[in-house]
Amino acid sequence: MIGQNVPRTDGLAKVVGTARYIDDVPPLEGELWGVTVRSPVARGVLTKIELDPSFDWSDVTVATADDLEDPKLNPGGVNLVALIEEDQPVLAKRELRHMYEPIVLLACADRDKAERARAAVKLHIDPLPPVLSIDDALAKKHVVWGKDNVLKRYRIRRGDVDAALKDCDLVLTGTYRTHHQEQMYIEPQGVIARWFQGADGAEQLKVLGSLQCPYYVHKALKKAFALKDDHAHVEQTVTGGGFGGKEEYPSLVALHASLLSKKSGKPVRMIYGRKEDIEATTKRHPSQCTVTIGCKKDGTFVAVKVDCAMDGGAYVTLTPVVLSRGALHACGAYKFQHNAVDAVAVATSTPPNGAFRGFGAPQTIWAIERHVDAVARALGRDPEDLRRQNLFEEGDVTATGQVLSVSVGGRPCLEAATRAADWKARRANIERFNERLAREGKRVRRGLGISTFMHGGGFTGSGERRLKGKVAVDLEPGGRLRVRSASTDIGQGTETVFRQIAASASGVRIEDIAVEVPCTTNVPDSGPTVASRTVMVVGSIVAKAAAEIAERVREESKPGESFAEAGDRLLRRVGGTVSSLQQYEPPVTVAFDEETYTGDAYPCFSWMCDVAEVEVDLDTFETRVVKWWSATDVGRAIHPVLCAGQVEGGTLQAIGWALHEDLVWRPDGSIANARMTNYIVPTAVDAPPFETILVEVPFPHGPGGAKGVGELPMDGGAPAIASAIEHALAELKLPTDRALLPDLPLLPERVFERVMKETA
Amino acid sequence: MLELDVNGKKVNVDASPLARLLDVLRGPLGLTGTKEGCGEGECGSCTVLVDGVPMNACLVLVGQVEGKSVLTVEGLAVDGALPEHLNHLQRTFIDHGGAQCGICTPGMLVSAEALLRNVPKPSDDQIREAIAGNICRCTGYQRIVDAIRHAAELRGRDQ
Known about the structure:
Largest sheet of chain A: 7 strands, mixed
Helix content of chain B: 25-40%
Structural class of chain B: alpha+beta
Strand order of the largest sheet of chain A: 3-5-1-12-9-10-11
CATH architecture of the largest domain in chain B: Orthogonal Bundle
Order of helices and strands of chain B: EEHEEEHHHH
Oligomer: heterodimer
Shape of chain A: globular
Radius of gyration of chain B: 15 Å
Strand order of the largest sheet of chain B: 2-1-5-3-4
Strand content of chain B: 5-15%
Number of domains of chain A: 3
Distance between the termini of chain B: 40 Å
CATH class of the largest domain in chain A: Alpha Beta
CATH topology of the largest domain in chain A: Aldehyde Oxidoreductase, domain 4
Number of strands of chain A: 23
Number of strands of chain B: 5
Number of domains of chain B: 2
Largest sheet of chain B: 5 strands, mixed
CATH topology of the largest domain in chain B: DNA polymerase, domain 1
Radius of gyration of chain A: 27 Å
Structural class of chain A: alpha+beta
CATH superfamily of the largest domain in chain B: [2Fe-2S]-binding domain
Shape of chain B: globular
Strand content of chain A: 15-25%
C-alpha cells in the first residue's frame, strides 16, 4: 500500500460537490449570523462603546469583554485566548493593541441586519502612536510590549566565530529582508457554535469549523468558558486550505461565536468575508537578517554569523516557536565549523503574525541562500558548484551540535535536480542565448538559479516528547479498522495516507479501513496538524496501533479462519470494544537543551534542491518563471501523487511570496489591499511547469521510512528565483560584494529600483 | 417566482431577481457544491456555466439567467454521485491529484468542462489560460493541467 497512488479518500465528494465545508452545513434551527466590530486604530485606549439609539437592537445580540467576565453569564470564565502565553484577550476591553482587534460581537437572524448593525456601534477611542516596523520596535520608538518590545530571544553558539573569521580569506556580510504573506486559503475562516444541555444537566458547547487543530480550539474554549474536558466538543468540517492560517486563529473565531451563542441561547454561524479574513487574521512574520560568512580561498565555508529579527505583531501567539524554527534553520544546509545565531522577535502594532507553512524557516533560508549566492559571486564561482562543495553530508554537525546521522539526502537532491535541469549546459546555453538577444536588440533575458535547503520534521527539540501524541485504532465488525486521530485533512491527504499506513501495518485491505472525523469527543489528542509532523510522527503511531490490533486478531485466529471471522469472534469474546491506543515515542537521540540550544533540534531533516529558470524584461523588470525543476528527499513517498502535490503547491506559494504577493500597509496600520483583486496570488498562467523528483533516503523511525514534506517546499523557492534573476541580469555589471536583490518581494518596481541604484 | 433551468432541470424558485445567482444556488436550491471564496469575481470558486459560458455566480443576478441554462458541479456527473457516474474530468482530477483541499475544485471542473466543449484537444497553454480565472492555493496547478489534458484524451477516445 505504501508507495501506491490510491484514489484519495475524499476525492469523490470533492469532485461531485457533496464535500461539506463549514458554510455548506444547513442552517440550524434558530441560527444567528455573527459579525465582529473591530478596532479602527492600530493603538489606543477604548473609553466607551455606544450603540446608536436610533437603530433597532431588539433582535440583535451584543457581546463585549464584560460578558466574558460576567460571573452570571460565564462563571469561572476569563477573557483570554489560551495558547503559549495568556496575553491575548478574546475581546479588547480597554487597551487596543492592533488595527482590526475585535471589540464587540453582534448576532442577528437577519444576516443583512447584522452587517448593518456593525455600522451602528460607535467606539470612543483615544488613539496612541503605533509601532509598525521591526526597526521602530527595536529602537523603542514607542514601547508597546514589556520594557523593550522584545517578545523572545534565542542564542545559538558553536565554536568561536569571531576568532575563526579573522583567519578566513573572504569575510562577507549582507542584510536581507522579507515581508508579510497572507495564507489565502480559498475557504475563509468559519465556525458554527451552539450550547446544549448535556446528559448530566450541565451546559455543553459544540463547535464545528474550518480548522487544523481541534485540540487547540478545545483548550481555548475550556479556558475562556471554564468548561470541563468533556463539556467542549470541537469538530473539524472539510477544510478548504489552511497552510498554518487555521492553526491558531480558529480559536478566536470559535470563542467569538461561542460567546454570542451563550449570550443569545441560539446557534451562531460566523463566516469571515475575504476582506475581513485578510485584514484580521495571522500572516507570515516579516524578518530582517544580517549574515556574515567566512570562507577559504577555495570556497570552503568556515564560519557563519546570523543576526535575525522577526516582527511578531501585537500579541505573543506562536511567535516564540516561529522564531525558534527560524533560528534553527538560519545557517542553512551547509558545513561550518563555527556558528553564531542571535534571534529576536519584537512586538509591533499590527495583527499578530502567526503560523504559515515554513514557520520562520523561509525567512532565514531566504537570507542564507541569498548570501551564499553573494559569496559565490565574490569568489567568481558558480552558485551550484559552491553549494555542492559545502552541502551537509552524513556525519556532519549542525549549529546546535546535532550530528546528521540518518536520512541525509541533500546531495542526492542536488544531483537529481541539477541533472534534470542539465545545470551546467543550460546555464551556458542561456548565457549564449542572452548574448544573442542583446545583439538582436531584444529586451528580455533568461536566467537560471538554484537553492539547496533542509527542513526539520516534527516539533523542535523535546516538543514531541512533551506533546505525547496519541492515536487509537479500533477493530470493527467484519474485520474492519477505524483510525481515530486529531490530525486533520486540510487538503494534503491525511485521510488517504493514514489509511495506506494502517493497511500496510495491519495487512487489512485499504477498503476496510476508515478514518474517524476529527472531533475532540471521539479522537485522542494526536497533537496539532502542523510542523510537517502528520505523516512522520502521527503516521508512525497509526502504524503502531494498526499493527497491534492486527496482531491481536491473528492471535485469536483459528486455522482456516479469515481475518474478519477472527475479528468478529474477538469482538464477541471481549463483549465490547477492541481498540489500541498508542502514544508517540520519539527516537532516542541527544536530548535537546532548551537553555543552551544545543543537541538534536529535530529527529531528522527533509532536503530539497530547487532550480528555477526565469525570463526578465529589461524595460519593465517583470519576471516570468519559465520552468521549475526540484528534487525533494521525503524519506519515502507514501502516496507519490499527493506528495508531489505538496511539493508543487508549496513551491508556488514561495513563487507567489517572491514575485506577486505584497501586503500594503498604510501609515495608520491598516491594510490597503485586503482583497483578492489587489493582493495577487499566482494563477495557472503565472505558475511554471513543474518537473518534480522525489528522492527517498529513508528515515528509520517514520512509517515506511517517510519524513515530513508539508513545509519544506515553501523554504527555497524565493531564493532560487532571486538567484535566477541575478543570472539574467549579469550583463548589467552588478556589484561583486553584495546581492543585487537582498529584499522580498521581487516586484518589478523593486527590481527596477535596485538595478537603478546598483548600476548608477 | 422565477423559472430557472439548472443542470438540465426546470426549477421554480421564490427569489428576488436581484439576488446573486450564487445565493440562490446555495440557498433555496441547496446546490452547495458551488463555493464562495471572495465575493468579487476573483477566485473563481463560484464558477458556473451559463449557456455554456463560465461565469462567476457571485457577480451574476439570478434574474439574468432566466431562460438560460445553468450548469453547476452537481450537473457534471451522469445521474448520480457514484464513481461510475463521474465524467472524465472528475475522474482525472481524482487520479492525477487535481483536487487537494477541494474548495476550488467545483469551479475548476466547470471551467475545464467549458474548455473541452470548445477545444477538444487543448494545449497546456490553452488549459492554463482557460483556468486562469480559478485560483487554487494548494496544487501549484501542474496536476490540474495534467488532469484536464488526460480528460481531453479520454473524451477524444469516446467520440
